[in-house]
């Protein structure tokens, strides 16, 4: 399964409802796990980003669909990055 790191920032709407952020994150996590995602970590952070998630997605298409679902709520804006394990990187380098 492809791995991703997702960086989130609260939108104005998300900041107004920040007291519900843990509840919202748990609901979204439950929905995504039912779709085959594995959440490896979900953290609230200080600095440029408000939340960071590390997930295994069933496919790239599923990842995009999941991010669109989160975006539709209007509480966060996200930036995602495909992450590669050491084993995956070795296979990529072997083809270079």
What is the compact description of this entry?
With about 100 residues, the protein is α+β, with helices and mostly antiparallel strands.
What does this structure look like?
The protein is an alpha+beta fold and 96 residues long. It has a single domain (3-95), classed as Alpha-Beta Plaits. The protein is built from 4 helices and 4 strands; from the N terminus they run βααββαβα. It has helices at 12-16, 21-34, 60-73, 86-95, and strands spanning 3-10, 38-44, 51-56, 76-83. Strands 2-3-1-4 form a 4-stranded antiparallel beta sheet. A hairpin with a 6-residue loop joins β2 and β3 (51-56). The two termini are 22 Å apart. The mean pLDDT is 95.
Offer a few descriptive terms.
96 residues, alpha+beta, Alpha-Beta Plaits, four-stranded antiparallel β-sheet, 4 helices, 45% helix
């Amino acid at each position: 399964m492809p791995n991703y790191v997702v960086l989130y920032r609260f939108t104005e709407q998300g900041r107004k409802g920040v007291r519900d952020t843990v509840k919202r994150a748990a609901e979204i996590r439950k929905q995504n796990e039912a779709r085959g995602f594995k959440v490896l970590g979900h953290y609230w952070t200080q600095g440029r980003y408000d939340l960071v998630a590390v997930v295994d997605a069933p496919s790239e298409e599923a990842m995009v669909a999941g991010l669109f679902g989160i975006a539709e709520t209007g509480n966060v804006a996200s930036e995602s990055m495909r992450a590669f394990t050491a084993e995956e990187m070795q296979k990529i380098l072997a083809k270079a």
